[in-house]
Amino acid sequence: MALSENNPIPQHIAIIMDGNGRWAKKRGLPRTAGHAAGAEAFRKIANYCRTLGVKYLTVYAFSTENWKRSEEEVGGIMRLLGKYLQEALRDMEKNRVCFRFFGDLSRLSPQLQKLCSEAVDQSADYDVQVNFCLNYGGRDEIVRAARAFAQDVAEGKYSSSDLTEELLSTYLYSKDVPDPELIIRPSGELRTSNFLLWQSAYSEFVFMNVLWPDFGPKDLDEAIAEYQRRNRRFGGT
Ligand code: IPE
Ligand code: IPE
Ligand code: MG
Question: What pTM was estimated for this model as a whole?
């Protein structure tokens, strides 16, 4: 692996797992086949992150906007998620990945919600934390945080002037998780599509042309190497 020894590997990497549909189209396959291949790519990358010693991996799997897709595609994605989670529960001991979910899970089927909570409960003691963004939207996350804070103000727990960046952060799905140093978007699109709007304030973005199902450890090395070449100033000089 040709990574620099000087700059640390990011402790938190976030990935917008995009390009499954185009990957399938190129092969004359249904979009769902692209999502299945994308799930495999995720499995490999999660394992590789553990090897690298990355502490947090946040992946965008389904956005608040993805419900706009056909019933067939959404149904296919949900079935694949169920299958993936069942396998993850079965292989928990081997993979040693700690699961968290960011997003409003209440819109998922009761079976899927149950698998999500089992995955969280059974993996709490493992060390690489995977934050799975499901029915997640950055704006939705901030609105929910604002609502929860307003509720606490109404109940007399806080006054509105108590609100700071730190306090607002504790109302987000990502509470207790440091902001990602590196956000990767494969598939060639140059936008965030509502991912980690609050947490990405000073993240380094790496956009890559590879489609997510083709994304492998070599591509992650390349993204990390690009991150390590960046000069992060955080507004300073
Ligand atoms: C990402 O791949 C997976 C989800 C958004 C659920 P896409 O399905 O968006 O693939 P493209 O962008 O159409 O190729
Ligand atoms: C972002 O990809 C969401 C996920 C990868 C889960 P999209 O494919 O939904 O984003 P747009 O539509 O290209 O912006
Ligand atoms: Mg897409």
Answer: 0.97
